[in-house]
Amino acid sequence: MPPRRWARPANRSPSGRLKASEGKKVRLRQYARLVDQVLRERLAGQSTPLVLAAVDSLGAIYRSVNTYPHLAPVGIEGSPERRSEGELAQASRAVLDDLNSQRVAAWRERFGVRGNEGRASTDLAQVARAATFEAVQSLMVDMDRVMNGRIDETDGRIDEAQTAGADSYGVYDEIARRVLLSGGEVLGVRQADLPEGAAVAAILRYAL
Questions:
Q1: Cβ–Cβ under 8 Å, residues 113 and 132
Q2: Where are the domains of the chain?
C-alpha cells in the first residue's frame, strides 16, 4: 500500500511554519488579549465607556477578544499615532456625546412607559420621599440646579433653606446620594434632557 499523503494546511509554509500574514494576525491577537487583560484589571467594577482608537484591522481583532462590557460600539477610526492627544480627546468626546444622547433618549422612553404604570415622577417632593424609602430605580437630575435645605431621614419631607448653612445642604445632591446608597443609578444631565423641564425625574421600583 502506498504511503498516505497528508494535505498541508493552507496557512503554513512548506517548512510547517505559519505564513507571514497569518503569523502577523496571531501576534496581533496575542497583543489584543494582553491589552484586554490590562484594561480588565484596571476597569474592573466600573461602567465607564471605553473608546477604541485603532486602525480597522487591529480594531476588529481587539473587538473580537474584548471582555469589557462597556466598550463603545463606535470607535475612532485611523491610526491614533497620527493624531495628537488633543485630537484624540476631541474625537473621544464626540463618541461619548453620541453615547450619552442615546442613553438619555432610551431613559426618557423608559420613563414614559413607567409613567403609564404609575412608576415615574418629576415631582420633587415625591422623588425625595421615594429616595428615602429606597424606591428609586433610576434618577435623572439637573447637574446645574441648586437647592439648599434638608430632607427628613424618616419620611423624606423637604425643608428648603434660603442659603447654605451648617444645618442645610444641597437637596438634589442628597436625593442622588440616597438613590446610590439603595443601589439605584443616577444620571447627571442638562435641564433640556429632563422630562417636562423638571429638576429631577425618577423611575421607581414600585408605585407609591
A1: no
A2: 20-82, 107-204
Each residue of 58-110: pLDDT tens digit? 999 999 999 999 999 999 988 888 899 999 999 999 999 999 999 999 999 99
Mention every residue, 6+ apart, whose C-beta is less than 8 A from residue 3.
none
Rounded to whole angstroms, the Cα distance separating 85 from 66 reads: 24
pTM of the model: 0.73
Contacts with 132 (C-beta within 8 Å, 6 or more apart), sequence order:
151, 152, 153, 154, 155, 156, 178
Q: Do the beta carbons of residue 189 and residue 142 sit within 8 Å?
A: yes
Query: Structurally, what CATH architecture does the domain formed by 107-204 represent?
Result: 2-Layer Sandwich (3.30)
What DSSP state is assigned to residue 189?
Answer: E
Dihedral pair phi/psi, residue 63, rounded to 5° = -60, -30
